[in-house]
């Protein structure tokens, strides 16, 4: 199973998605017997790579957010001590 094959959500995999969809159109019966399996494997690998990149970017973003939050908490704690 794969996520919805929308090109705007998966720009890295757009070429493979188009090939995969074309294969399904060109081979309406053979697709059930493995005609498009190689493309499906490539598509799954591409989705994994794409997800790994997104995960890494999200992790970096969350680290920056945590650092800003900790700095804000320290700043608020210092202001409360002075008051």
From TrEMBL:
Can you name this protein? COX assembly mitochondrial protein
Q: Where in the cell is it found?
A: Mitochondrion
Return the InterPro entries for the record.
Answer: Cyt_c_biogenesis_Cmc1-like (IPR013892)
Q: Give the main location.
A: mitochondrion
What the entry lists under PANTHER family is as follows: COX ASSEMBLY MITOCHONDRIAL PROTEIN (PTHR22977:SF7)
| One GO CC term on file | mitochondrion
Recorded family membership: Belongs to the CMC family.
Report keywords, A-Z: Disulfide bond, Mitochondrion
């Amino acid at each position: 199973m794969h996520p919805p094959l929308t090109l705007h959500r998966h720009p890295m995999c757009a070429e493979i998605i188009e090939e995969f969809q074309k294969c399904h159109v060109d081979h309406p019966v053979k697709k059930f017997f493995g005609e498009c399996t190689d493309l499906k494997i490539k598509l799954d690998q591409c989705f994994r790579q794409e997800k790994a990149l997104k995960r890494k970017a999200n992790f970096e973003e969350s680290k920056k957010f945590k650092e800003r939050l900790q700095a804000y908490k320290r700043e608020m704690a210092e202001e409360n001590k002075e008051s």
